[in-house]
Amino acid sequence: MRADRLVATLLVLQRRGRVTASELANELEVSVATARRDLEALSAAGIPVYPQAGRNGGWQLLGGARTDLSGLTADETRALFVLAGPATTAAPAVKSALRKLVRALPEPMRDSADAAAAAVVIDPRRWGDMGRRPRPTGLEVLEAAVIDRAAVELDYRDRGGVSSARVVHPLGLADKSGAWYLIAGTAAGLRTFRVDRVVAARLTGEHFERPADFDLQDAWSRAVEEIERYRASVTATVRVPANLTWYFLGQWGRHARVTEKEEHTNVVVVGDRSTVAIARQLAGWADAIEVVEPEAVREELVRIGEALLRRHVTEPVPG
Q: Which of the four, 37, 41, 183, 307, has the lowest number of CB atoms within 10 Å?
């Protein structure tokens, strides 16, 4: 219920003016660490919440205590809703809290707040061993374009490294375990773009009407299906030690499944976009696993091993 806490934190700051993390934790019945993280999240999102050092310090909402949300600027309100309320994934109680908050906003801000709350979908399911990713450069520009219905000219580099420029209508963003995707209307229909492949994004000064039948969650679900068909278009069968299978499956995510259980090993089928991509992920397991098929993956593993020897071994290896 993080959105509820963030809204409650903001209202506490407006009522009391300044609080310590400990005081906030007591009032909201959360841990001090949780209260501090929420305060830092509000500040990082662009809402004017700042720590005050010193004996009488604490956290303060710039401008002093306020009894409602009318003191927030339009940009600050949008930042709160992008942070706290992805409308398509929030729990019913969170959605209810956000609806109440929208009604408390001045009329000119309500449409912007609604748009911000529906601008992002959070997909916690991982695609393999994605690791931690930094927040992509230019994400804020795209967030604002989604909310403002502003056309953007993208300089985009595809997976093959080919660059192109195109004008798109940003309709929503998806965060998949730190990997960000833009769903946008183009001359060829809806398209999905990896935000970390966006070289530059420029506002054109033009605005567009959001299609009445567009639903971000549905659009993202269709995009995921398409991406997964591409990512798992090639498969390999691997024999994995039983005691390592849980970690192996965690690395591959949804593109791995156990097809047969043996006494000490499990047979696992993995999928990716090519034999080379599969071999590169398997190479780190060295001799802990055995590739049963296809032969092309086995051959690629041999090629990787030979390349590593040439690169890193300065003397002949016995045998």
A: 307
Domain count for the chain: 3
Give the domain-ending residue among 118, 147, 164.
Answer: 118
For residue 308, what is the enclosing H or E element? helix 295-312
Distance in angstroms (rounded) separating the CA atoms of residues 185 and 183: 7
By residue range, what is the domain housing residue 202? 139-230
Nearest by Cα to 268 from 237, 241, 289: 237
Per-residue tokens: 153: 């000219």
Tokens of 2: 């993080």
Residue-wise pLDDT tens digits, 122-179: 776 665 555 556 778 888 889 889 888 999 999 999 877 888 999 999 998 888 877 8
123 backbone φψ class: left, alpha, beta (φ>0; ψ -120 to 50): beta
Is residue 146 classed exposed, middle or buried when 0-12, 13-18 and 19+ CB atoms within 10 A define those classes?
A: buried
Write out the two tokens for 157.
């580099």
Q: How far is residue 284's CA from residue 288's CA, in Å, rounded to a whole number?
A: 9
- Structure tokens that stand for 236 in this block: 């390999």
Strand, helix or coil at 62?
Answer: coil
